Amino acid sequence: MAALSRLSPREQVDFTFLKTKLALTDGNLGAHIVTLEQAGYIAVEKAFVARKPKTFVGITAAGRRAFEGHVAALTSILNPS
Amino acid sequence: MQLSSEEAARALAAIEASRETMRSAIRAHRGHYHLWLWGLVWIAMAMLAEFGGLAGIRLFRWVSVAGIAGSVLIGLLQSREIRSPLDKRFFGVLVAVVFFAALGPLVLRASPDNQGVFAYCGLVAMLCDVIAGLWFDTYLLWLGLVVAALILVGLFCFHSLFWWWIAIFGGGSMIVTGFYIRYFWR
Q1: Is the CB of B25 less than 8 angstroms away from the CB of A21?
Q2: Interchain proximity B21–A3, CB inside 8 Å
Q3: Do A14 and B82 touch (CB under 8 A)?
Q4: A57/A55 Cα distance (integer angstroms)
């Protein structure tokens, strides 16, 4: 979610690229994506690029809100008002 | 779940690390190559005009063609790991704007009189109709295209009858469409 939160609202990132950048395994990232997609926090789209199947992942508005809430909650633990 | 401040700090640091990784990846995929290219194209055109005068200005179209070819090439070579799916309506608006923008100078050069100015203003209004049609309701798109075509036909083929033409076919088209929408639209 942290990585996806950097994307613009309409941007999507390739699954393999994300996996490499975050140094995750297929299974690990795949499990994260399934859970987050079921929660409505990310949107997954499958497409053919140069005749090869690719999976693209983007963050939804709900996902962005939830992530920002999570960061705010963590920050409030560090800086209680 | 209660987190200690150390755990929260670690979580925030992990988040920031992921975001930074993604930030640098996104930076590498943005359109900076296109901006560099078109910056150079504009500099080249300005310098051609400054030092080459009219002969330099005549080269603008070739410099533009080179820029467009360069942009297409960059687009083809750019990796596709991060993408923004193209909204067809947005693409349609771009095409409409470029098309109508190209008509403007054509109309004003060919007919630098009141008819030409009216035709230009009418085309701008029809561009708005076309965009509204792409976004909201198809009839506006067709109305915009048909009336724009009628304006051009009137201006170039029936210049001496232009005002009658506009009254009957331009204004008439809109009124007829209004009646159609009010009474027959399903």
Answers
A1: yes
A2: yes
A3: yes
A4: 7
Q: How many residues are present in chain A?
A: 81
The minimum CA-CA distance between B63 and chain A, rounded to whole Å, is 31
Nearest CA in chain A to B18: A3
ipTM computed for the complex:
0.79
Look at residue A57 and give its three-state secondary structure: strand
Could you tell me the pLDDT band of residue B30, with boundaries at 50, 70 and 90?
Answer: low
In whole angstroms, what is the distance from residue A67 CA to residue B22 CA?
15
Render pLDDT for B62-74 as a digit per residue (tens, 0 to 9): 999 999 999 989 8
